[in-house]
Structure formats: C-alpha cells, structure tokens
Amino acid sequence: IVEELVDDEFGYKIPLDYKFFMFGDEIAAIQVIDRPSKKKYEQSQGFYDENWNKIPIDIWPIREEVDKFNKSKFFDGMKKAAKALGRELGIFMRIDFYTTKDGFYFGEFTPTPDGGKGYSEEGNRFLGTFWKGEEGVLGS
Fold it and tell me: How many Å apart are CA 45 and CA 89, to the nearest integer?
C-alpha cells in the first residue's frame, strides 16, 4: 500500500491523527495522536470531546496522555463529516482524519479500534456509556 505524503497543518513530521469515536452521529471522543516514533509508548495522545474540551481520564494508557494539541482550523469540517458518516453507518465506528495546511483528508474506518485491547477500565466505562443496542446505536 502506498499513500500520498501530506504535510501536517501544524508542522509535525508525521501528520496528526484525528480519530473520532462515533456512535451513529454522536461523538463520544476524539483521540489526537502525535507519532514521532513507530513505538506506541513513545507516541503521545490527547482525548477531546466534540467541543475540543480535554477529556480528563486516560482512556488508552499505552500512549502518553498530554494536553498539547491545538484545535485544527478544519475541526468543524472534520466534525461535520464524522457526524454525517456516522449517521449513515448507524453503528459504532471510529472515523479517522488527517489535516494539512489546505484541508483535511479521510484516513480510515475502524469498527474495532486496537482490537478492543489496551483501554483502561475507566476508559471502557466511559465509552460504554455511549453504547446502545447490539451495534452501539439503537435501531441499527
């Protein structure tokens, strides 16, 4: 697989990863990841709500939890796209994006982030409060 190399909006060597945890069109959390290394324990992350407020728990403790990320100027566009895609899917799905100086790019859909592994007990409880029905969204 070959992907186009894009320049990060904020100048990170590898573009920040914006991972929207969607339950239908409801945003439970947005994980932002800085990847200066291939080793997850050398990477950092922050979890935010849909209004860009830092979520005060360590949802996925494999990476260092930080509050260093600036809100992208394309945040509203990514949020709108994630909600539209989530609404159409009607199930739980993580929807990923990257930003550049010129806009944002779709990354991937992930129905089972990290195979469901590595989440803290507190993180599982938090995300579990959004889960409804068999597929994460009632009526799916």
Answer: 26
pLDDT at 115 over 70: yes
The pairs formed by 99-107 with CB atoms below 8 angstroms and a separation of 24 or more are 99/8, 99/9, 99/15, 99/16, 99/18, 99/72, 99/74, 100/6, 100/7, 100/8, 100/9, 100/15, 101/7, 101/9, 103/74, 103/77, 104/18, 104/72, 104/74, 104/77, 104/78, 105/6, 106/81, 107/17
pLDDT given at position 140: 58
- Tell me which long-range contacts 87-90 makes (C-beta under 8 A, separation of at least 24): 87/24, 87/25, 89/22, 89/24, 90/24, 90/135, 90/137, 90/139, 90/140
For β-strands 92-99 and 26-34, DSSP reports them as: unpaired
Record the tokens describing residue 128, joined without a space: 């579990």
- Report the alpha-carbon distance of residue 73 to residue 99 in Å, rounded: 9
**pLDDT tens digits along 57-83:** 999 999 999 999 999 999 999 999 999
